[in-house]
Amino acid sequence: MALSSAMKKRFDSKQYKEALNLFDQNFEISTDSTIDMAIKACTISKDYKRGIRIQQRLSSKSRNNSYIQAALLCFYLESKDIDNAMHLFSSITNKSNYMYTVMFKGLITNNVAEKVLDLFDEMKIDPDQFNLSILFNLSILFNACAVLNNNRAMKIGKKLLDEMPQNYRSNNITSTSAINMLMKFGDVESAERIFRSIKAKDIITYGAMVKGYVGNEMFEKALDLFEQIHLSLTNVIYTIVFNCCAKLCNDRAMKIGKKLLAEMPENYRHDNITSNSAIGMLMKFGDVERAERIFRSIKAKGADIYGALMNGYNLNGESWKCFKVFEEMNEKDIIPNEIVWNILIGACSKSGMLHHCQYIMNQIPLNIRNKIRTQNALIDMRGKCGSIEKAMNVFNLVVDRDTITYNAMINAFALNGMGTQAVELYRKMPNNLRDHISHICVLNACSHAGLLHEARTIFNEVSLKTESIITTMVDCLSRLFMFDEAQKLIEDYEKTNTPSIVMYMSLLSGARNSRNSNLSEKIYKRMKTLFPNAREGLVSGIVLLSNIYSSLGKYEEAKHFRSNQIEELGVKVKVGLSWTEIKGHIVQLKAHDHSHPQSTESYAKIDRLKSKAIENGFIFDSSWITRSLNENETIKSVLCGHSELLVIALNLIQEPAPKFIQVVKNLRVCGHCHEFTKVIAKIEQCDIVVRDANRIHHFYPNG
């Protein structure tokens, strides 16, 4: 009686335990109906040991009771005991459709959808014998085929759909499952046909269709259909459309996404999944403040919500905020999941600060640290922080290396100027693991190390030369001032493809380094003609070309060209910033910055370094000055006011004899700062690592 009440009222775990204790005491006089309820109670209360004990005490009569058999199947599958579920199911001679339904649902939940198709093959359904139970199974089978999405699943799923009687196609649950399956197969047209055939479309059917478009990267179609919905929206629809707007991220998507968010009912704002997607969307839009407001409004925050916020900070160049969010999670005893740990590792990669990297790495649980996804992220992180030896240590620990493992290590070598090592690892990498990213990483390594012969050899070996691969080869040739060959590659590419602005930027960057103003002007004019709407790329081109004019002493020409062209585009030039870590805090400065409390001491330190450098024969190269001098300015004061030198000086006054200084800059390091940092490292007998927008520079005490 107590057990029956527990089942009807859905007692808490303590009350279930009391009821089951009473059942144990009266087991010998229990009926099959009571045993059935007891097994169901064990399933609900997740009491696996007791459920097994009940199963072991069953009489042969009870073992053959179909209700008890179905209850045991549910119990095993809920307990993730697939082997016992399969063994019991195979022993049942009279399998009902309900038992198949239980097995199908349980196997999908336990991520073994392949076994669903194995069982389906045993059913041998006659198409003339369709009934409501089989109809329900069809929905589950379509879901299983969608999850698997392989050749076998496609064959079975489409055959089932073809054989399904016409009168069952009006069932929304089955039709929606079929739409979801076809969309997963990439068969959008067939899904659209089924959708059009449904007379009474409900919100779930619309949701499956919109989600299918998003899954097939047909974002505009997804929004077109969404705008046709005149039904009450569910939290699922809000989530799907927010994700769609985040992926599309154009003016239309921003307008729809923000309007939808403003109109969303209050009760959906407490749904973590919907709020998660809203935060992700706003972060993609660059609306960090609004995303933060939504985050703060959520009362019961889980790890996923914190992850969405941190991922947004990474996207918007505010990775340092991730560490504050992580501290909040620790204070509130919220345990990061694998996704959150990988986002934090990504934040370390972007910040580039070794102290933060080690702090985060020390807290990652061993079971997550040993997963290949995390190990790959750690290799990338170590490489981007300039700690190449530790990146190699992680690489050597990976047992079953995949494509990403090799690519991360090759890229780490490339970023740190170790071209030869990158080529060696690329050659050791199994051919079946190489992909286009592998080719790009190794060619990039050759480009930065000036390994032309190796680059040409690898480039010629690549059968499918993508835009990115050709761009990397153009960059390699341009760095070595081999402009004719680089331009020939671009011309050949454009015979069969749309022009790429990145290729022209690589060419222009090389022309800037060679101070070839004629070639630079031709390249920029070509870019304006080919890419009139590519504002960000054109701004970078304007900066490079104006810098060439400045390097040749044409300051007025550079000034007018830069201001006129940028005004015409209506965009802002990215401000150069450098940051470093001092006493556990990130300090960020721009050129000629006086905002730091110790800026007076920093500039005094730079003056002393200038004097020592001059004593050692260092010459300050005015060609790296990009504007005319103001009153009271000198070549030395302008060049030594660059942000990377200011943060180096700040490190030196904080700790008079540091052994290691680390700097990250969001733009390229200029030639003067590169040479001057060599001298500083020698004067101060200190290792200095500077990561700029393209690579990592290591400066040693030997100069």
UniProtKB/TrEMBL annotation:
Gene3D superfamilies xrefs: Tetratricopeptide repeat domain
Plastid found in the keyword field: no
Start and stop residues of the PPR repeats: 202-232, 302-336, 402-432
One Pfam family per UniProt: DYW_deaminase
GO molecular function: RNA binding; zinc ion binding
Superkingdom classification of source: Eukaryota
Stored PROSITE patterns: PPR
GO biological process, one term: system development
Protein's name in the database: DYW domain-containing protein
Species of the source: Rotaria socialis
